[in-house]
Specification:
Chain lengths: 271, 188
């Protein structure tokens, strides 16, 4: 089993000690970090003081999301980085899955004039690039994870021409969908199940405090999606609101004043 | 009396026009030659059927880094039309919130449509935009960084090879001379 933690750190150095505490509380094997405030060397040094394995940074030129892991370095290989480093695709080898593709993304935010149609367009482009890589390496064992800056229900996440993410395993395991003469692979998006307060943990990964007429307040912008071949290997998925010692919430919402305006997601794969 | 035939057609219309894909492939080859194969340029084309678009991509592939692929740009045009073509590259992406807002408020007006900064309507314009991208600070630093990392990997490999060759020589020098007594033993 491998434990992954993705977190958009919002360039806040206060997150570094929190990452160390998270490593202890949740036995994190792989950190995937967006907007990292420090050189990963600093974080690696702090993590290795724990004496819980040898953490290393897997650096790649021009990528937006940093990878720090205590899995052997020879198990990791960067395969692809797209324009602007929005998405880096890594391959890592495990005993049970010899060629697991890990697509790590950080897409532009909705603020700054970005429209839903722009996000759909980026999703379409990235989904195409993922398929290209899958074809090139003849593997569909793909995990897509990161700050997508979209909710699971946004068109870019759901559309057959976007990431084509489905809320249930039954939907995701259906045969590839034929649309306008082309076949489109599916993703399983387990994040749907984490909305609201009927499941453990916070109601989302991001809170938008605004008086606009229609505001659902909690958003799940940070997500993990899996190809159907991997969905039964997802053992655990959780949005974290604390590191075991300190809470990430201020007045009930994630705050940059404390740590980050995003909450981390933790997932464990049986690989 | 004969008069010279005056052409009323645009001077952009000429027999030597190349498609964006051909131009990208030429530049892919140019990179491979310029770096002695340390970096390999690779152009690809695919269809985006939902929008009836053709997408061209230009990647840097680094054989020394296990075939790692860095996308430099994508260019898209309407299928069958070739031009105009729009380039997506780091160079043309908004760097500040102001730029992003400016880009977002450039509402396309059917009657007064402004040409976008990443748009080329001819092969000449495409070449000019492409040159700007390929010579941009972003692409230059990416390419030089990839070359440096590739050279690091190759140097380490060469060093390893030298060390193992030296170890072989040393082990041969220190090993006892080969025995030649088997033949005699069997003749007993």
């Amino acid at each position: 089993m491998i434990s992954f933690l993705f977190w958009n750190l919002a360039d806040n150095e206060a997150t570094v000690p929190a990452l160390v505490r998270l490593a202890v509380t949740y036995t994190v094997d792989v950190f995937l970090l967006a907007e990292c405030p420090v050189n990963t060397g600093v974080l690696v040094d702090r993590l290795n003081e724990l004496r819980r394995g040898a953490y290393q940074a897997h650096e790649q030129i021009g990528h937006k999301v940093r990878v720090v892991s205590r899995l052997p370095a020879e198990h990791w290989e960067a395969l692809f980085n797209n324009v602007a480093g929005d998405m880096t695709v890594w391959q890592f080898r495990t005993k049970s899955v010899p060629f697991l593709l890990l697509a790590v993304v950080h897409l532009p935010a909705k603020s700054g004039g970005v429209r839903e149609s722009d996000q759909h367009s980026w999703a379409q482009s990235l989904a195409g690039e993922i398929v290209d890589i899958e074809e090139e390496y003849r593997s569909c064992d793909t995990v897509l994870v990161g700050d997508l800056n979209m909710n699971p229900f946004d068109p870019g996440m759901v559309s057959v021409t976007g990431f084509h993410g489905h809320m249930t395993k039954d939907l995701a395991r259906r045969a590839d969908r034929r649309h306008r003469g082309k076949t489109h692979r599916r993703f399983y998006n387990p994040m749907w199940g984490l909305f609201g307060d009927r499941t453990p943990g916070p109601a989302g990964t991001y809170y938008w405090d605004s008086s606009v007429p229609s505001n659902h307040h909690w958003h799940i912008l940070d997500q993990v999606l899996l190809r159907p071949s991997l969905m039964n290997r997802l053992l655990h998925l959780q949005i974290l609101d604390g590191d075991g010692d300190r809470t990430f919430l201020k007045n009930g919402a994630p705050s940059k004043d404390l740590f980050s305006d995003h909450l981390p997601i933790l997932f464990q794969l049986d690989v | 009396m004969s008069t010279a035939l005056e052409s009323l057609w645009s001077p952009d219309i000429k027999p030597t026009i190349s498609s964006p894909f051909v131009i990208l492939m030429q530049q892919a080859d140019a990179l491979t030659r310029q770096t002695d194969g340390l970096l390999v340029g690779e152009g690809r084309v695919r269809n985006e059927e939902e929008k009836s678009n053709e997408i061209f991509t230009l990647d840097i592939v680094v054989p020394a880094l296990g075939g790692y692929r860095q996308r430099i740009l994508t260019a898209s045009c309407r299928a069958g039309m070739v031009y105009p073509v729009w380039i997506d590259a780091e160079l043309f992406r908004p760097k500040t919130l102001g730029e992003a807002l400016g880009a977002a408020t450039t509402v396309p007006n059917f009657f007064e449509r402004k040409k976008l900064p990443n748009e080329a309507v001819s092969d000449q314009e495409f070449r000019e935009l492409l040159e700007r991208v390929l010579r941009s600070a972003e692409v230059t630093s990416l390419a030089t960084s990839l070359i440096a990392r590739a050279n690091d990997v190759l140097s380490k490999k060469q060093l390893k090879a030298k060390e193992s060759a030296k170890a072989d020589v040393d082990s041969q020098a220190t090993s006892p001379p080969e025995e030649h007594g088997h033949g005699e033993a069997t003749t007993q």
